[in-house]
Protein backbone atom coordinates (compact mmCIF):
# COMPACT_ATOMS: atom_id res chain seq x y z
CA UNK A 1 0.00 0.00 0.00
CA UNK A 2 1.31 3.43 -0.91
CA UNK A 3 2.22 5.69 1.98
CA UNK A 4 -0.46 8.27 1.15
CA UNK A 5 -3.12 5.54 1.11
CA UNK A 6 -1.79 4.26 4.44
CA UNK A 7 -2.05 7.72 5.98
CA UNK A 8 -5.60 8.13 4.67
CA UNK A 9 -6.60 4.71 6.02
CA UNK A 10 -5.08 5.54 9.42
CA UNK A 11 -7.01 8.83 9.56
CA UNK A 12 -10.24 6.93 8.86
CA UNK A 13 -9.37 4.31 11.46
CA UNK A 14 -8.64 7.01 14.06
CA UNK A 15 -11.97 8.68 13.30
CA UNK A 16 -13.88 5.40 13.54
CA UNK A 17 -12.19 4.65 16.84
CA UNK A 18 -13.75 7.81 18.19
CA UNK A 19 -10.39 9.52 18.49
CA UNK A 20 -11.82 12.79 17.17
CA UNK A 21 -10.34 14.78 20.02
CA UNK A 22 -7.25 12.68 20.39
CA UNK A 23 -3.68 13.45 19.51
CA UNK A 24 -3.24 10.72 16.87
CA UNK A 25 -6.01 12.02 14.65
CA UNK A 26 -4.78 15.60 14.99
CA UNK A 27 -1.21 14.60 14.07
CA UNK A 28 -2.35 12.51 11.10
CA UNK A 29 -4.51 15.35 9.80
CA UNK A 30 -1.58 17.73 10.16
CA UNK A 31 0.62 15.37 8.11
CA UNK A 32 -2.05 15.07 5.45
CA UNK A 33 -2.27 18.87 5.27
CA UNK A 34 1.54 19.14 4.98
CA UNK A 35 1.53 16.53 2.21
CA UNK A 36 -1.26 18.37 0.37
CA UNK A 37 0.65 21.67 0.68
CA UNK A 38 3.79 20.04 -0.72
CA UNK A 39 1.74 18.60 -3.57
CA UNK A 40 0.33 22.03 -4.40
CA UNK A 41 3.77 23.61 -4.10
CA UNK A 42 5.45 21.11 -6.46
CA UNK A 43 2.42 20.83 -8.77
CA UNK A 44 2.89 17.08 -9.12
CA UNK A 45 1.78 13.83 -7.56
CA UNK A 46 4.04 13.00 -4.61
CA UNK A 47 5.96 9.74 -4.42
CA UNK A 48 6.37 7.78 -1.21
CA UNK A 49 9.87 9.24 -0.94
CA UNK A 50 8.48 12.78 -1.17
CA UNK A 51 5.95 11.98 1.55
CA UNK A 52 8.71 10.52 3.74
CA UNK A 53 10.60 13.80 3.31
CA UNK A 54 7.54 15.73 4.51
CA UNK A 55 7.15 13.45 7.55
CA UNK A 56 10.88 13.65 8.35
CA UNK A 57 10.67 17.45 8.20
CA UNK A 58 7.74 17.42 10.62
CA UNK A 59 9.69 15.17 13.01
CA UNK A 60 12.73 17.44 12.78
CA UNK A 61 10.61 20.50 13.57
CA UNK A 62 9.19 18.78 16.64
CA UNK A 63 12.61 17.68 17.84
CA UNK A 64 13.86 21.26 17.65
CA UNK A 65 10.80 22.47 19.55
CA UNK A 66 11.26 19.68 22.07
CA UNK A 67 14.73 20.94 22.97
CA UNK A 68 13.38 24.45 23.52
CA UNK A 69 10.46 23.29 25.66
CA UNK A 70 12.78 21.13 27.77
CA UNK A 71 15.01 24.14 28.43
CA UNK A 72 11.95 26.16 29.43
CA UNK A 73 10.69 23.38 31.71
CA UNK A 74 7.32 23.06 29.95
CA UNK A 75 6.65 19.42 30.77
CA UNK A 76 3.15 19.09 29.29
CA UNK A 77 4.35 20.35 25.89
CA UNK A 78 7.41 18.09 26.08
CA UNK A 79 5.18 15.07 26.71
CA UNK A 80 2.85 15.97 23.84
CA UNK A 81 5.74 16.54 21.40
CA UNK A 82 7.27 13.19 22.30
CA UNK A 83 3.94 11.49 21.60
CA UNK A 84 3.68 13.31 18.26
CA UNK A 85 7.21 12.25 17.32
CA UNK A 86 6.33 8.64 18.19
CA UNK A 87 3.25 8.76 15.97
CA UNK A 88 5.17 10.27 13.05
CA UNK A 89 8.09 7.87 13.48
CA UNK A 90 5.76 4.94 12.74
CA UNK A 91 5.78 6.06 9.09
CA UNK A 92 9.54 6.55 8.76
CA UNK A 93 11.95 3.75 7.89
CA UNK A 94 13.88 2.31 10.81
CA UNK A 95 16.64 4.69 11.84
CA UNK A 96 20.29 3.65 11.58
CA UNK A 97 22.15 3.24 14.85
CA UNK A 98 25.12 5.49 15.47
CA UNK A 99 27.61 2.65 14.95
CA UNK A 100 25.95 1.62 11.65
CA UNK A 101 26.12 5.24 10.59
CA UNK A 102 29.81 5.49 11.54
CA UNK A 103 30.58 2.35 9.52
CA UNK A 104 28.70 3.73 6.51
CA UNK A 105 30.48 7.09 6.78
CA UNK A 106 33.87 5.33 6.84
CA UNK A 107 32.92 3.32 3.74
CA UNK A 108 31.85 6.46 1.87
CA UNK A 109 35.05 8.28 2.90
CA UNK A 110 37.06 5.38 1.47
CA UNK A 111 34.93 5.36 -1.72
CA UNK A 112 35.44 9.05 -2.48
CA UNK A 113 39.04 9.08 -1.27
CA UNK A 114 38.48 11.85 1.28
CA UNK A 115 41.33 12.62 3.65
CA UNK A 116 40.63 16.07 5.10
CA UNK A 117 37.88 18.53 5.96
CA UNK A 118 38.25 19.99 2.45
CA UNK A 119 36.56 16.86 1.13
CA UNK A 120 33.53 17.16 3.42
CA UNK A 121 31.26 18.30 0.59
CA UNK A 122 32.13 15.24 -1.49
CA UNK A 123 31.50 12.92 1.45
CA UNK A 124 28.18 14.55 2.41
CA UNK A 125 27.05 14.54 -1.23
CA UNK A 126 27.73 10.82 -1.44
CA UNK A 127 26.31 9.75 1.92
CA UNK A 128 23.09 11.76 2.18
CA UNK A 129 21.29 9.82 -0.60
CA UNK A 130 22.26 6.55 1.13
CA UNK A 131 20.87 7.55 4.54
CA UNK A 132 17.95 9.69 3.44
CA UNK A 133 15.11 9.16 5.89
CA UNK A 134 17.16 6.69 7.91
CA UNK A 135 19.32 9.15 9.83
CA UNK A 136 19.23 12.74 11.02
CA UNK A 137 21.33 14.98 8.76
CA UNK A 138 22.76 16.82 11.75
CA UNK A 139 24.08 13.55 13.21
CA UNK A 140 25.54 12.52 9.84
CA UNK A 141 27.29 15.89 9.56
CA UNK A 142 28.67 15.57 13.08
CA UNK A 143 30.05 12.07 12.46
CA UNK A 144 31.61 13.06 9.12
CA UNK A 145 33.33 16.05 10.77
CA UNK A 146 34.55 13.87 13.62
CA UNK A 147 36.04 11.23 11.32
CA UNK A 148 37.60 13.67 8.85
CA UNK A 149 39.31 15.80 11.49
CATH class of the largest domain: Mainly Alpha
The gyration radius over C-alpha positions equals: 18 Å
Beta strand count: 0
CATH superfamily of the largest domain: Uncharacterised protein YqeY/AIM41, N-terminal domain
- How helical, in percent, are the residues? over 70%
What's the order of the H and E elements?
HHHHHHH
- Could you describe the largest sheet, including whether it forms a barrel? none
Domains, number:
2
- Determine the CATH topology of the largest domain: Hypothetical Protein Yqey, Chain: A, domain1
Report how far the terminal alpha carbons are from each other.
44 Å
How is this structure best described in words?
With 149 residues, the chain is mainly alpha-helical. It folds into two domains: 3-89, Hypothetical Protein Yqey, Chain: A, domain1 (Orthogonal Bundle), CATH 1.10.1510.10; 98-148, Arc Repressor Mutant, subunit A (Orthogonal Bundle). The protein is 76% helix and 0% strand. It has seven helices and no strands. Helix 5 crosses helix 7 (137-148). The N and C termini lie far apart (44 Å).
Topology:
Layout: H1 3-16, H2 23-42, H3 48-72, H4 75-89, H5 98-112, H6 120-131, H7 137-148
Could you give a short description of this structure?
With about 150 residues, the chain is mostly helical.
List keywords for this structure.
149 residues, mainly alpha, Hypothetical Protein Yqey, Chain: A, domain1, Arc Repressor Mutant, subunit A, 2 domains, 7 helices
Amino acid sequence: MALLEQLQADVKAAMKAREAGKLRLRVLRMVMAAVKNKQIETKKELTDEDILDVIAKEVKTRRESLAEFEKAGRDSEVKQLRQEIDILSEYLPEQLSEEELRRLVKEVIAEVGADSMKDMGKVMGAIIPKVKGKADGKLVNQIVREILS
